[in-house]
Design goal:
Length: 102
């Protein structure tokens, strides 16, 4: 009987150890899954931030280009107006030039 009890005790101990090992493995798998999920989430956030930065840069570039274009158009118009004034002072007929200027 003592031997049977001893064998049974060893079997129970081994079973408990096996259950404990499986439990630890499952916990480790869950931890790794959470870690991987967190890394994936961080990666996606980083990609999104990068995209947003690129979009902002594109918008700023477009805005700068449009501002420069408007400045050039304004400078051209001011130059034409100055030229018309100079011609008018010299007695030239500038009505057509003024009409074309808009």
């Amino acid at each position: 009987k003592a031997i049977t009890a001893q064998v049974e005790e060893k079997r129970k101990k081994k079973q408990l150890e096996e259950e404990q090992r499986k439990k630890e493995e499952q916990e480790e798998e869950r931890r790794l899954a959470r870690e991987q999920e967190e890394m994936q989430k961080q990666y996606e956030e980083d990609i999104l931030k990068q995209k947003q930065k690129e979009e902002i840069m594109t918008l700023k570039t477009i805005e700068l280009f449009q501002t420069m274009q408007r400045a050039q158009e304004l400078a051209q118009r001011l130059k034409q107006e100055q030229r018309i004034r100079e011609l008018a002072q010299k007695g030239h007929d500038t009505s057509r030039l003024i009409k074309n200027l808009g």
